[in-house]
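Priority: low. Protein: CopY family transcriptional regulator. Input follows.
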Amino acid sequence: MIDSLPRREREVFETLCRLETGATADVRAALADPLSDSAVRTLLVRLESKGLVERSPGAHGVVYRPAQATETVAVGALRRLIDTFFAGSAASAASALLGLGQKLTPEEAAALEAMIDKAVIPRDGEDKQ
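Result:
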């Protein structure tokens, strides 16, 4: 459903996902191309009507948050990205990410190695982990 959102709604939704929770002013301040408070509020209400955003009373007014866990939304977005730009190949996407030049910490490298080991399909005759 996120793919079908108009550009500004998607931008507000993605910003809220990044923040995890926030008031209208928080979302507005985090936007790359800020809108007025009333425009952000209108977009958040639209997202709420679509079931993507929930609101609750906060200490300083209404607080918004994604209706689904941010991790769930991120996994869906990543799957669409892999399908669209990497023909469904997680390995190609991972190679592209690693090719961006950002260095990994030893802990990150070890975690990736462990995940790769779990994801590898064993050849016939090899032990399954």
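Residues 2-66 form a domain with the Arc Repressor Mutant, subunit A fold (CATH 1.10.10.10). The chain has six helices and two strands.
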